[in-house]
Design brief:
This protein is an alpha/beta fold. The protein has one domain: Aldolase class I (TIM Barrel), CATH 3.20.20. Helix content is 28%, strand content 18%. The protein is built from 10 helices and 12 strands. The protein has a 12-stranded mixed sheet with strand order 7-8-9-6-5-4-3-2-1-10-11-12. α1 runs parallel beside α2. The structure holds S-adenosylmethionine and iron/sulfur cluster. The site of S-adenosylmethionine has 19 residues, from β3 and β5. Iron/sulfur cluster binds next to loops.
Length: 333
Amino acid sequence: MDQPAANIVDTFGREHDYLRISLTERCNLRCFYCMPEEGIPLREKSEFMSSEETLAIAKVFVGMGIKKIRLTGGEPLVKKDAANIIKELGKLPVELAITTNAVIVDQFIDVFKEAGIKSVNVSLDSLKKERFNMISRRNYFDRIMKNIELLIANDFIVKINVVVMRDLNEHEIPAFIEWTKKQSIHVRFIEFMPFDGNKWNWDKKVSFKEILNLANEAFGESAITKIEDSKNDTARSFRLINGIGTFGIISSVTNPFCDTCNRIRLTADGKIKNCLFSQDETDLLQAHRDNLDIKPLIISAILDKKKQKGGAEEFDEDFVKNMQNRAMIAIGG
Ligand code: SAM
Ligand code: SF4
C-alpha cells in the first residue's frame, strides 16, 4: 500500500499522521495515577475491538495518511492475541512503536523484531524497588529492570517514561539522568496530568522548570546540552556531556505542545479521541460493524478538535472539578 500525503487536517491546519491505538483497558499493574483505586468497570468483550477490527480500522487510517502507529493501553501486551495484531500491523507501511510497562516484554522480543518495531517506550517511575512497587501496586520491579536490559541488549531504542510527582519521586531525577551517562536510554520526565480518579491537584505536579532546575542543580548547567527537537516531539531533550543516552521533559500541563499536535487516539472500544483531554468521542467501531464508511467520521472528529487541551484554558481546580474524561487506563496515554 502506498502512503498518501496526510489528509486528516484540523481547522488550525494541523496535519494528523500519528495514530495511537489502545489495545486493551486491562493491565497487569495498577499505577495509582492511571488506574483508579477501585478499578474501572468491567465490560463485555464484545464492546472492544477484536484484532480483525483493529486492523481493518487501522488500515483506513493508513489510507488517509497515517505514518506512525503506537500501540498502548492499558497494557497492550496483555491483550490475548497481542502478538498476532502486532505482527499484522507491522505489515502496514507505517512506523510501528509501542508503549509498555515491560512486565512481559521478554515474551515479545521476536514479535517486535518481526513487526519491525525499533523503538519501545517503557514506563518506570522509580529506580527504587519499594517505591516502584508502591506506585504500581504490584511487585514486578526486578522483572521490569531485567526486561529493560533485554531490550537494550537486543538493540531496541528504549525510552523510559517517568511521571514526576511531588514528594514521591522528584528527588530521583538525578539518578535517572545519571543512568543516561552509561547506558543508551532516553529518559523522559512527564508532568503529572489530571484524569478521572487520579486525585490530581496543581501542587502534585512537578513542572518542566522545576525538573530542569533539579537537573541543573545536580549536574551543573555547563554539563547539560540542549538537543535539537523535531517538529512533533512532545519532549524537550537534553544530554549530559559525555552521556550515552539523553533525557527530556514532557510539559503536558505547564506548556502543552498543542500547536504541533499530530495525534489521533483510538480507544480499545473503538472511539476516536481527538485530544487526550477531549470530552467528545466518535464511535468508529459501531460504524465499522454497520459497514459504514468511517472516513467521514474520522475527518469530522478531527475538524472538531479544539486549539488546545481539549478546549480548556488552564488545568486549574475548576477544570479538574468539571472534567468529564476517562481514567487514563481507558484512554491510552
Ligand atoms: N501500560 C503502558 C505503560 O504504562 O507504559 C501503556 C499505557 S500508559 C497509560 C501510557 C503512558 O501514560 C505511561 O507512560 C504512563 O506513565 C502515562 N500516564 C498515565 N497516567 C498519567 C498521568 N496521570 N500523567 C502523566 N502520564 C500518565
Ligand atoms: Fe498499567 Fe501503564 Fe496505567 Fe501503569 S500506566 S496502570 S502500567 S496502563
